[in-house]
Amino acid sequence: MVCSPLEAGKVHETCGEKFLTVTPGVRFADGEIGDQKRVMTPAQAKEIGSDYIVVGRPITAADDPVAAYRRCVAEFCD
User: Fold this and answer.
1) What is the number of H-type helices and E-type strands within the chain?
2) Which domain holds residue 52?
3) Which of these, 5, 17, 12, lies nearest to 55 by C-alpha position?
4) What is the pTM (predicted TM-score) of this model?
5) How far is residue 14's CA from residue 66's CA, in Å, rounded to a whole number?
6) How many CB atoms lie within 10 A of CB 17?
7) How many C-beta neighbours within 10 Å does residue 21 have?
8) What is the pLDDT of residues 23-67, one digit of tens each?
9) Alpha-carbon torsion angle 4, 50, 45, 54, nearest 10
10) Cα distance between residue 48 and residue 39, in whole Å
């Protein structure tokens, strides 16, 4: 299910842990939130139950997209 990171935990409570969540609206703590209202960092999204995250502009608009991608992976997977 695609849901905000704020809703991922509730989805798992209701549908079970095997029900996968995909959460957009992921931003770095030191980044801009842009037009997003319900955002979390990669680490916060993982902590509350997001199985997969969607990260667009924080990577595509970065000065070094590869470094931004690696940072995102490190924050989500640690």
Assistant:
1) 4, 2
2) 5-77
3) 5
4) 0.83
5) 36
6) 9
7) 23
8) 998 999 898 877 777 789 999 999 988 999 999 999 999 999 999
9) -70
10) 12
Q: Which of 42, 10, 11 is nearest to 24 (CA)?
A: 42
Q: How many residues does the chain have?
A: 78
Number of domains in the chain: 1
Beta bridge partners of 53: 23
The CA distance from 59 to 36, in Å, is 15
Distance between CA atoms of residues 22 and 12, nearest Å: 12
Tokens of 21: 């969540």
**Looking at residue 23, what DSSP letter applies?**
E
